[in-house]
Records
---
Amino acid sequence: MVQSVSQIEHKDPVHRLPPRRAAAVDHPAAVHLPSLHEEVSAAGPPRLRANRRCGWRYCAGLTARITVRGREAEIIADVDVCVAGGGPAGLGAALAAARQGARVCLLERYGFLGGNFTAASVGTVCGLYVNEGGTFDYVTRGIAQEVADALQSAGSAFGPIPFKETAVLLYVPWAAKRLFDHLVSEQERLTLFLHALVSDVVVAVDSEGDSTLEAVVVATKRGPQAVRARAFVDATGDADLLAFADAPTTIGGPGERQIASMQFVMEHVDVAGVMDAGGLETLASVIAEHGSHLSRDSGAVLPTFRPGEVIGAMTRVRGPDGEALDTTDLAQVTYGELEGRRLAEEAATFLVEHMPGFAEAFLADTAPVLGVRETRRAVGEYVLTGSDVAEQARFDDAIAAGAWPQEYHVRGRSTEYHFLPPGGYYQVPLRSLRPLRLRNVWVAGRCVSADHHALASLRVMGPSMALGQAAGTAAVLMACCDRDDAEGVRASLVEQGAYLG
Ligand SMILES: Cc1cc2nc3c(=O)[nH]c(=O)nc-3n(C[C@H](O)[C@H](O)[C@H](O)COP(=O)(O)OP(=O)(O)OC[C@H]3O[C@@H](n4cnc5c(N)ncnc54)[C@H](O)[C@@H]3O)c2cc1C
């Protein structure tokens, strides 16, 4: 017999919060968050806490399982190369593949492209430059340089801006969003699907246990739909395709995984006043003096060069246990989004109260989503290591070069940097883009086959675009010619203007 919703709610404990938890006396944030205009008590705003039953506040704490029925899925695209994830890596891959004449399908779960570039409003592109004794030259050329140049010539980015021993490109996230719209729209052979969350894969396994990906399944409002391709790029940042295909992946444990952050935008800032007062050095000393309650002891306010606007990079969003969240888990990522907005509001209030130039400023918004630095990544034919980065490794099958320092958001409230010497760079081998046991898949961006210490450098957006360009190029060679040799990929990348070191 069909039950009404109210019957279900009253009879089925699965759908009902026990009265004790609904009252949430030990979770004040569940019933009350301070409003923008409300006085926050001397003890500070209420903190979200872990649910005692499952460890996470937004977790039903259930362990039961249910069988999901097998269903047919309509094939919405049948292409040469399918790229999952439209962040810096996925964009690099899709553009490179389409420009070489392949029929490409790019799948992105949000309503816009860019990944952390736009969705997390990170505010600077790192890893573009190598320090040549005080002057800066591009170390990631190709599509990464093209994006940087296009943003700069539109007046929406400025660089290289010296930062510690290296340099960055400051940019406007909105401009990047529109640039990516244009870049993909220019490619006639590229089919873009937004709001397309890849939720499963279809795999054929041969007698030796090697798998070939036949299709990816996309969760849509019309149920599951599929994209079939000859070759695939996993640029999801979380190695989703690999995980769905049961290919080897790994994720760092406590202390071995970067902590997430929630960026935020402030308007009506006296940016010149901030600079005159000493900029980031003053920010660090103001935090040292008044900001022991903040989640981060330094961070930055990044001018977008639009009047009175800065991006705040001043939060560190940990789990209730103080460790990095695993944002592939729904309960943890939900916790992170709410906690991130709380920390952003706390940091913005602090800036208004204590930082010169912010007296008239206001918090305009947080980034669209929590910024995630590190989760699951591939275990590939080669695992790039922290020593490879520090010792500037060279590889015969190099497909990109990186020069960004190892940048850790892991311990305490500070950010730790380990710089390469001036002019120093390392190479990345094609084998780090090749997952084990999957014949026709390449991986790119922050889920490549690298250890935590190599990823601390390689994960930033300049190299991510370069790795994407290499993965897209390798996927084309596989799709068109059944080739997976490094020489072909390297020759094509050089022709495309990429720098391999
Ligand atoms: C707070 C923060 C600050 C940072 N600051 C900087 C900085 O200043 N400069 C810099 O260069 N780098 C910075 N980084 C690092 C950098 O942003 C990322 O490492 C980089 O964006 C990685 O690119 P990616 O394409 O591999 O992954 P992402 O940028 O994470 O993109 C992955 C894309 O895949 C999509 N996706 C994921 N899963 C699926 C799925 N199943 N189906 C469909 N689509 C999917 C996502 O929506 C996203 O668009 C920062 C990161 C964070 C979190």
Note: Residues 259-372 form one domain.
---
Amino acid sequence: MRIQMVLKGKKLEEEIRPDLTLLEFVREHGCFSVKCGCETSGCGLCTVFLDETPVLSCSLPAARADKKEVTTLEGLIKEAEEFGTFLAEQGAEQCGFCNPGMIMNTIALLREKEDPSDEEIKSYLAGNLCRCSGYEGQMRAIKNFLSWRKERPGSLVIRAKTKKQPDAAGEGSESISKETAAAAGTAASIAETGGAV
Ligand code: FES
Ligand code: FES
């Protein structure tokens, strides 16, 4: 069957096997940050964005991405760098194997919710397994990032989606502005090399 897709910002049109998974497809196109950790939809390592929604590419037929945009960590370098710095500061990347999936889902969460509670963070990231840590470092990194983001509303890469929020006067208000990369983290190399393994 033939599918069309936007991957890494480029339009593709290809003939694929009907049983090809999205995970296999993106890796065949050089997106080695997307890895297979379980094949049972249980680890989150294969997370990609289908349009704006995080999905497990190991359990999604590539055909389901027909006429959609697929984003992997390779397409989110600045955001990954920005948040990766906070992960590194907290020692939350020991072997680094879980980082691509963890970063993808954290970016999705922080785009969706401007100020998630601890419970919302835990619930959103519950599908991301890390065999090395107790998740405390990741939690500290996210909370530190949230504090940092609040102090720098004009220089964000990972920003909550701009939504019109009705205020008391019934007017809409918008938040957030232009982006700037923050720091050199390890996340860029994760995206470029696929990280550990
Ligand atoms: S490889 Fe997809 S969830 Fe583990
Ligand atoms: S740091 Fe090793 S699996 Fe998470």
Note: The CA atoms of residues 10 and 132 lie 36 Å apart.
